[in-house]
TrEMBL record:
It comes from Radiobacillus deserti. SUPFAM superfamilies: 6-phosphogluconate dehydrogenase C-terminal domain-like, NAD(P)-binding Rossmann-fold domains. One of its GO terms (cellular component) is cytoplasm. Keywords: Amino-acid biosynthesis, Cytoplasm, NADP, Oxidoreductase, Proline biosynthesis. Belongs to the pyrroline-5-carboxylate reductase family. It is an enzyme of class 1 (oxidoreductase). The lineage of its organism: Bacteria, Bacillati, Bacillota, Bacilli, Bacillales. InterPro entries: 6-PGluconate_DH-like_C_sf (IPR008927), NAD(P)-bd_dom_sf (IPR036291), P5C_Rdtase_cat_N (IPR028939), P5CR-like_CS (IPR053790), P5CR_dimer (IPR029036), Pyrroline-COOH_reductase (IPR000304). This is Pyrroline-5-carboxylate reductase. The keyword Membrane does not apply.
Length: 264
């Protein structure tokens, strides 16, 4: 059994731990800590039945995997604190904008690190998670990481540079989709249905559309299936194109990229 020490006990940390416990509970001994919120730790202990500690340093040396689930602004100080205790552990972080090189820099030479970017759908096991590996991660450690991540959904390995560029697409874009859902729900309510019905209409439409995409069909082909030339859907699409929806999404994605650089 491998020992997994988690530093941070927020929503993403809990989503990952929940995914592990649902699929691989006999493979990992989980210890959770954070940077001072004892009440949160007690809640986690009661909910998941994992071991908790208020002093993570007592557990670093005999841990196999270190899961850093603290905000980007706290990463550097945590990494420097952790550095003297590292031997051959795998260290992975879910902090936005904190790439492989930033993880490796404060740690001893040869430290095995991974940068992981899930999204909030991890809470229901449906995240599309991207990850990039440091140069010292071996095959066994990558397999262990994938075992951990499979509990929150599919994972795709990319380069560090790609992860910086793609984080807005897989990590931030769900908020863009929820924004669209909010607008459509408001429009549906304006046609006389109550909020619950309106949300059901929109959520089922999005779910069905996502499943059509997941079937492997190209977005353009799916658009053509809905939008008959000269029809009402085509008229609506023309408005979106005229208003430069493509450009709006490009600018939104780039704004996320730039903000991630500022945060760290």
């Amino acid at each position: 059994m491998q020992k997994l020490l988690t530093i941070g006990a927020g929503r993403m940390a809990q989503a990952v731990i929940s995914g592990i416990l649902q699929q691989e509970q006999d493979r990992f001994h989980i210890v959770m800590s954070n940077r001072g919120n004892v009440a949160r730790l007690e809640q986690v202990k009661n909910k998941y039945g994992v071991e908790i500690t208020t002093n993570w340093k007592d557990h670093v040396t005999n841990a196999d995997i270190l899961f850093l689930a603290v905000p980007p602004s706290q990463q550097q100080s945590l990494l420097h604190e952790m550095s003297p205790y590292l031997t051959n552990q795998l260290v992975f972080s879910v902090a936005a904008g904190v790439g492989v090189r930033e993880l490796e820099a404060p740690l001893p030479e040869g430290a095995a690190v991974a940068w992981v970017m899930p999204n909030t759908a991890a809470e229901i096991g449906q995240s599309m998670t991207l990850y990039a590996l440091g140069q010292h991660v071996n095959e066994i450690q990558e397999k262990t990481l994938l075992t951990i991540l499979k509990g929150i959904g599919p994972a795709q390995r990319v380069t560090e540079e790609q992860l910086h560029a793609l984080t807005p697409v897989t990590g931030s874009a769900p908020a863009f989709m929820y924004y669209v859902a909010e607008v459509l729900t408001r429009l549906a309510r304006g046609k006389g249905v109550d909020e619950a019905v309106a949300q059901q209409l929109v959520s089922q439409m999005i779910l069905g559309s996502a499943r059509m995409l997941s079937s492997g069909q190209k977005p353009k082909d799916l658009i053509d299936q809905v939008a008959t030339p000269g029809g009402s859907t085509a008229a609506g699409l023309k408005v979106l194109q005229t208003e430069d929806l493509d450009g709006m999404f490009e600018r939104a994605v780039q704004a996320c990229v730039e903000k991630n650089k500022e945060v760290y």
